[in-house]
Structures are given as structure tokens and as C-alpha cells.
Amino acid sequence: MKTLDELYHQMLRQAADGKPVDVDGDPKLIDCLAHPDDHPLIWRVKPCVCPPDEKRPCQEACSWGAIKPSPDGKGMIIDDAECVGCQACVDACKLESLKTSKDIIPVVQELHDYDGPVYALVAPAISGQFGPNVTMGKMRTALKHLGFTGMLEVAVFADILTMKEALEFDKNVHTEEQFQLTSCCCPMWIAMIKKLYHQLLPNVPGSVSPMIAGGRTVKALHPNAKTVFIGPCLAKKAERKEPDIAGAIDYVLTYQELRDLFSVTNLDLEKMEEENVPHASSSGIGYACAGGVADAVAMTVAQLDPDRKVPIKTRKADGVPGCKAMINDILAGNRDGNFFEGMGCIGGCVGGPRAIIKKEEGKACVQAYGQEAQSRTPVENPYVIELLKHLGFATVEEFLEKSDLFDRHFD
Ligand code: SF4
Ligand code: SF4
């Protein structure tokens, strides 16, 4: 019987060649690859064989209560509604019985068959992931060769959300006792607060992530468009399906899935032409690294009100244990800050589970790309205003007051 990986590569090649997918193998695995939305985020590729009276490594690894014994007591089931896509269970299962969902085959089919626009939205951690000489301009051309209508940098939407968080901070924090937790960017951080530290939700402004902001903006401007987010993150695959924000993003690919597609299509990325569209500020690009959100918001708050009576003081944590330790400090009253950023992965998104290069290398590439940016913050970024004008708003403030495009309501 063919393994999941063998079926994946065979089906991906057929889809990339524009042929109908037609392979022999386990029908359940083939259906997972062909129709990932009909299946949970984590796929079981082998039966569970851990003795029922022992602690299961997958269940022990899951901090979110998503893995439960099956009704017959012989195996484990994963509750997709509770799963945040952290991948801890996949790493914990030494028999490699669990695999993570892949969206690439339906995306390639959309690129061949869909008669409307299909946009790629690339996460800020993309710098350097496909080689040191593959610039953002070459990546844009390569994605168009694959059939995408265009490529947008999600860092632009990070800029708008930086502004939103900075204005929220300005509105809400006026005394030494008040504080704000970022709502931006990382679904693991948000899941942690929603599921484990619910009492802190009032301190989280109701904002969508830059990914959802990007998807909603594309669909506001091009209602028939399909949106494909491309990043280093598995948790984003779970985030896009959350009921209150579903519909903004149609597919989430990882850098590794995109690399597999480049590999079967034999595109030489380094030889692509440059198609540069300078957009994001260096602080929007910096969202890819731990501390990037806090630095961006701090700089923007300082620019908006340099004489603020209660200045912004940031604290940041990365990795689930680090985030939990910081939150426990907040709850114990040891705050030492009034703006808190948490990122689920060590190093931030450059350390995401489906990054291609090491996090230190990724961080250096992100920083080098950030230095090329023409602005440091969203306040200085003329493209942010231009984009909002396309949406019918004269200023960021007007947009934030009158539009609910970037809002979400946590319960
Ligand atoms: S991916 Fe994470 S949240 Fe989902 S079942 Fe596995 S350990 Fe739990
Ligand atoms: S820090 Fe990790 S979990 Fe959070 S958005 Fe980035 S890659 Fe995803």
C-alpha cells in the first residue's frame, strides 16, 4: 500500500500537469489529499496502537484538550473544533500515525480551473525561505507563473493592524493599572487566552489577524476572488475555519507545500524577473520575528503621541511555555509592562513548524528585507493610505471608526 507521502507526490504531479487526479491507494488518504476541508486538520494515517490503560503521548502533548479516547476506548479521536493546529500531537507520536493537513492539491486545481482571480497572500516570514537570491519580486513573478493573479504581502495588513492596536492602546491605557494584550497575528496566542486564560479577554482588542485582514480586503475589492495564504504555520489552517472569521481565506499553504509545487513544476526561482511593488514598512515586515508586533506598536504609539503621560512599555514572550509564564506573571500582578505580545513558536513565525530555513537565518533575511523598506512604521507608509482610499476611506482613523472589516468579537 502506498504511503501518504507517495500518494501526495503522485497526486501533486498530476494536478500540476493539469490532469485529473487518478491514483491507486487507500481511498481515505486519497480523499484527505483531494478534499482536505472534509477532514480534520490532523490526519490519522495508521491505527492507534498504544495500550488503552497507558497515557497516550498525543493526548499528553495536547494543551488544548482536543484529543479524547474514542467511544470504543481502543483509540483516540481529535476534536477538530478544539484543535488549534499546534502539531504537538504529531511530533509526540513516535509511530508517525498522525500527519498534518495539506491544501496544495485543491489549490493547484483552482489555479487550473477557476475562472476568477486567485490571489496569494504571503506571510512576512517568507524572506529567504526559498533561497538567499529569491527576492520578493522574483517570488511574485514565480507565483504568477503558477497561475496566481497576483501576490500581496501580508506585512501591509500588519501595518494597518499596528495602527489599530496603537490607537486602541491610546484609547484604553491611561493609568499604571491598565494594560493591553495583542490580538494580532498568532492564533496559538489567541487560542491560549480564549481557552486557558479567558479572564484576560477584556484586555485583548477585537482585531482580526493580518491574514484575515488581507483576505477580507481582497474580497472587498474583488468579491469573486479566491485567497490563498502562504506561511510557515499550521495553526493558520485552523484559524481560517474559526466560525466568526471563516470565508476570508479559502486555503492555507505552508512554505513546504509551496516548495513541493515549485519542485514538480521545475521553476527556477532565481531566474524569475523582478516584479517589485514596495509596500510594507519595516515594522510590518518585522511581524515575522518574536517581538516584532510589540516593537511596531511601541514605535507607532510614540509617533502618535510623543508626550503620553503613561508611556507604552512592552513585554514579549515566545513558545507556549514562555507565553504561559508571562500570562501567569500578569495574573499574579507582576506585570512589568502595559503591552504584551505572545507568539506560539520560539523565535516567532520564522520559527514556525513549516518554515524551510533555520529561524536564525530566517530572522536575518527578514531584517535585511525590512532595511530595504521605504518607511519604518505605518504612520510613514503612503501605501497604507493608498490602499484605504481604494476601500473608500480618507485616513486610517476614519477607516477604523467606520469599518468593521478588521474587527472581530471574542466571546
Ligand atoms: S494539533 Fe495541537 S491542538 Fe490539535 S490535536 Fe494536536 S496537539 Fe491538540
Ligand atoms: S508564531 Fe507560530 S503559531 Fe504563531 S502565527 Fe507564527 S508560525 Fe503560527
UniProtKB/TrEMBL annotation:
Coiled coil: none annotated. Residues 74-103 form the 4Fe-4S ferredoxin-type domain. It comes from the Bacteria. InterPro entries: 4Fe4S_Fe-S-bd (IPR017896), Cytosolic_Fe-S_CAF (IPR050340), Fe_hydrogenase (IPR009016), Fe_hydrogenase_lsu_C (IPR004108). It holds the Pfam family Fe_hyd_lg_C. PROSITE patterns: 4FE4S_FER_2 (PS51379). This is [Fe-Fe] hydrogenase large subunit C-terminal domain-containing protein. It comes from Megasphaera hexanoica. The lineage of its organism: Bacteria, Bacillati, Bacillota, Negativicutes, Veillonellales.
